[in-house]
Amino acid sequence: MRFRLVDIGFVAIGLAIGVILSLQIRAHPVKIGSSALDQFETKKAILTSLSVEQEELKQKLAAIEAKKEELKALIAGRSSKKTVQTLENLKELAGYSQVTGDGIRITLNDNVSVTRLDFSSINENFVQATDLRDLVNVLFLKDAKAISINGHRITPMTPIQSVFDSILVGSLQISPPFTVETIGNQTALTEAVKNLTKRNIQILTDPLPSIQIQPAQDSTTAKFLSLITE
After folding, report:
1. pLDDT of residue 2
2. Which of 18, 52, 154, 211 is 20 to 30 A off residue 4, Cα-Cα?
3. Cα–Cα distance, 105 to 90 (Å, whole number)
4. 3: pLDDT confidence band, cut at 50, 70 and 90?
């Protein structure tokens, strides 16, 4: 029985080596010469290949987006106006559609006596991640229809946390001043700011007759590289 196990082990090792050798033989190695010009031409060829693949993926993505819009229009045509309106309201609350209306702009900044080079999470003179979290939570409690921080749409699920001397809002790293725009009843929203008055930071509130807050960034949003040609 022991010799059988040994034989099986050797067979498995032999198969693994064979697969590795097969993959190496089939692979197309990238040849990079020793000169700077050869290396430049090789890298340029790789970027060109990636650019072509990227263009194909962009076209596929555009086709998928077109199909999605087609299906959305089909569903909307088969649904009642009340159902469509309910869906739009839910999308607004979830942060997936643009919201426009009156509201307030709140600007938070560190105390003039400090600089971020000396940032400390226990220093009352600095705007902390907890300040933004508390403000956002109270604004939502005051029935804010939409909130953004430095142009970044905030939803009830958006994480706000400290990263050294800056703050991470979702996947966006931001630094002061922090501009919070929110749409809703101006009186109620202004009341929410009073929770921060005990902090030793700069707080400025401005009522605005019209604010436009964009949807939260979609996870399907893609950024593409572009080849620079001279």
Report:
1. 46
2. 18
3. 24
4. very low
